[in-house]
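Subgroup meeting minutes
Present: P.N., E.W., G.H.
Scribe: E.W.

1. P.N. recapped why we're keeping a running log of single-chain structure predictions: easier to compare across weeks, and new members can see raw inputs and outputs side by side.
2. G.H. added today's entry (240 aa).
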Amino acid sequence: PEMNPHFRYLVEQARAMDVEVIDRCNLTILLEPGYEDLPQFLAENRVHVVASLPCYLEENVNAQRGKGVYQGSIEAIRRLNARGYGSDDLLLDLVYNPTGPSLPPPQAVLEADYKRELDERFGLRFNSLLTITNMPISRFGAVLLAHNQFNDYMQLLRDNFNRDTLPAVMCRATVSVDYQGYLYDCDFNQMLDMPQGHHDGHQHLSVLLDHDLEGEPIYVADHCFGCTAGAGSSCSGALG
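Output recorded in log:
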């Protein structure tokens, strides 16, 4: 999102209205030419940073994201820490997702491991770890198909369906908006072009000015088992 030419304007205008802003950051953008001042900008506007770091071990991160990503991510966290991130005042959350066709481990246990390892190895700090289940769509879905693992992974998700996660799934309280302003029940439905509420055609963001979406149906499909398996999964991590 930081590469959008209007990113800083949008952040400043939202913060001027006292709206919480969450930057879903990939960390290495903070090292790119022209973006070196982003940590200071984010801190000045008190933006909540949620950043991907799929493991605290270098070999696992580079295997998933590419050579050099781990060291770049560590340096980016160091720069955020230097601006006060990882404290009670400036929130920095990290995101874990499995490297293969498995469910995330318990979030609290893994968070303790991350905090210990990143502190002991680099003196880094962050607030919370969010564990997110890989969804069987898009790039990950293609990888599963290429390795003949798609059906097995879908069965894993179904076998671990947890009804207790249903009250907290993100599609019940949020909507996803694409770059043209059209609505979807979640980010994954947006990727699959499944319109909000299973409507014929796409509803535009402008409808929210006159209509309350409370009680509208949610467009569901097989990938929804990804949010309801095990401890559950959402943009805010495990659901229970």
